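User: Can you predict the 3D structure for this chain?
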Amino acid sequence: MIEHLQQTRGPAFGFAVHGVLTAADMRDLTAKLDHMIGDYKKPIGVLADLSKMEGADWAARWNEMRFLERYTDQIARLAIVGASDWEEIASVVLVATAALQAQTLYFNSSEISHAWHWVKMLKHDAEMPVRLIYPGHGLFQDYTPEYVGI
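Assistant: Here is the predicted structure, written as structure tokens:
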């Protein structure tokens, strides 16, 4: 189940996942995000609280990749909030955020206020704990084709 977080406003959209993420949950999330992006019309920040997530079915994972591809130009920052070690979450989230091209940071559950601050303000305080998952430069930014001119 996906819960729309009450702190959502302005350029920030937040949601929490409870239990197992399903394809229906992803459809609901997409509808809410479409509405929010339509109202704001600029790249936004997204906070995803995964601290109570217990996994996802395969259809939800597929829809998640389609979701990230669809919103690649509309999401500038992605804050992942979790209860697990950030290294574990980083390995799962890295591929998806590379497709999204958004700067992605990880925050512990106890640091959710820092996550909201970063998502809303587009930058972080020097005092804020920062665990970079993905810098947000695009998957193929520095790629040079090996066989040019053949």
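The mean pLDDT is 76. Residues 42 and 74 are 7 Å apart (CA to CA).
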